[in-house]
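Input:
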Amino acid sequence: MYLGQVIGLAIATRKDERLVGTKLLITQPILPDGSFSGQPIIAVDSVGAGIGERVIFVTGSVAARIMSDPNAPCDAAIVGIIDSIESFHR
Amino acid sequence: MYLGQVIGLAIATRKDERLVGTKLLITQPILPDGSFSGQPIIAVDSVGAGIGERVIFVTGSVAARIMSDPNAPCDAAIVGIIDSIESFHR
Amino acid sequence: MYLGQVIGLAIATRKDERLVGTKLLITQPILPDGSFSGQPIIAVDSVGAGIGERVIFVTGSVAARIMSDPNAPCDAAIVGIIDSIESFHR
Amino acid sequence: MYLGQVIGLAIATRKDERLVGTKLLITQPILPDGSFSGQPIIAVDSVGAGIGERVIFVTGSVAARIMSDPNAPCDAAIVGIIDSIESFHR
Amino acid sequence: MYLGQVIGLAIATRKDERLVGTKLLITQPILPDGSFSGQPIIAVDSVGAGIGERVIFVTGSVAARIMSDPNAPCDAAIVGIIDSIESFHR
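Output:
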């Protein structure tokens, strides 16, 4: 899993039918201190994340497990909303 | 999922038989502002994407789920065409 | 598998129900000499790793195999605690 | 999928028995203009690719689908030989 | 698959029970000319690789296929020992 921050929304009317009804959230990977690092991904959401919130997301085939159709072509999903981070060494 | 822009087409007469009949679209990863970032990949298409269009693509084993034969050796697929992006913070 | 050091903890009250009850450990990839390299990930733990310990972690779909529910949306897991490293050439 | 060029051959007498009889082709990722980009990988071949040819390869678990034993420990495979590339914007 | 050189050994007494009895080899990715490139990974071994040997390794879920328990949480495995490399262009 990775730390991220929801920074936007992608609108796609034409999409794979198994993705219809999902929100496609632009999610920026972040470091434990909140700074941005790396390239944004598009994640589906299972936990009601909103713009600006810090989240935990997964990538790869396990992401599809949050979909109502777990055979959807989905490779990134938000699986938690961060309350707080306790970080040492960095 | 990732944001991308279709920038070309690869022609391959000799290919795995499970890929016959698919379009192999050269897809450039992009940032939310549309600028190019990273190396192009080759994605199959399930949504009728054309050259120049901005799309959402998946990578890894879930990509094969868009194929008529879901056991095809395919690891990248376009699953949506972007209408608009609402991006904050970047 | 990768070498890492546990450097923190992420607290997420709202999360996928299959992740409830797991500790989400912020894990920094390290080189054999212990220096930090690359971006921290969030890993679940199956071996009782504590803050500061050096560990071995896996990523991708195999990580979910350590969960009590192996269908959890989990893509990173600590699978061992390092006692020592014998490294040559570096 | 990725664009690549076959630049060599790795010989390995001792190998997993499910890989016996396969050619292990050193494959350099390339950009649409043919320039090298990134680190070579070792791919098995299902389409008769030769040294110097430009190819399309897949990575990850789907690569094993080209093997006679689809349970082989294989994570990279050549699935097409490029005839031509039509690239715009780059 | 990737070219690598075994450069060390990680000792982990506490580990997932499905990894007990495996050697955890620190494996440095290399280029065809033998130079180091990228960050070392920890790979299990199925072919009797020793310190200093040049090897072929796989990553991701297919790596677990070399384990006696193919459901082990393992994402990197050595699957061949390199006798020689014939490389062109580089």
